């Protein structure tokens, strides 16, 4: 059965969206530390429209963040979300590929 990972994420970390885009890498890392176990530990994630609000900042972290630890956590998170959403991730695939390829150029 599909599992909703957004509800537990918002309970653990009430200001998750703002933490993902915070200027401090420690706060971004803390937000990703909450997301990674939920994303990787769930076999099938319940699709919802709210994933765009998570995927877009994660892609921005991958393409622009200088802190490699934060980038690694963002990649793990996106990988877990992609595996869990399966076909539901197709809406975000283009944005993810662009972000990964921009990082690969470096």
Task: Please give a structural write-up.
The chain has about 110 residues and is mainly alpha-helical. Helix content is about 70%, strand content about 0%. It is built from six helices and no strands. The protein has helices at about 5-10, 15-20, 25-40, 50-65, 70-85, 90-105.
- Give the uncertain stretches in residue-range form: none
The number of strands is 0
Tell me, what's the shape? globular
Radius of gyration of CA atoms, rounded to a whole number: 13 Å
Largest sheet: none
Helix/strand order? HHHHHH
Percent of residues in β-strands: under 5%
Helix content class: 55-70%
Which features does this protein show?
mainly alpha, single chain, 106 residues
SSE layout:
Elements (H helix, E strand, L loop, with lengths): L5 H7 L3 H5 L4 H16 L11 H13 L3 H18 L4 H15 L2
Quick recap of the structure?
By secondary structure, the chain is mostly helical. It has helices spanning 6-12, 16-20, 25-40, 52-64, 68-85, 90-104. The N and C termini lie far apart (40 Å).
């Amino acid at each position: 059965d599909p599992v909703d990972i957004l509800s537990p994420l918002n309970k653990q970390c009430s200001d998750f969206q703002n933490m993902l885009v915070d200027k401090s890498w420690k706060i971004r890392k803390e937000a990703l530390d909450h997301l990674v176990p939920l994303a990787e530990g769930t076999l099938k994630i319940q699709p919802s429209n709210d994933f765009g609000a998570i995927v877009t900042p994660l892609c921005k972290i991958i393409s622009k963040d200088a802190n490699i630890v934060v980038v690694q956590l963002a990649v793990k998170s996106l990988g877990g979300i992609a595996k869990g959403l399966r076909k539901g991730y197709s809406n975000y695939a283009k944005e993810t590929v662009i972000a990964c390829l921009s990082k690969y150029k470096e």
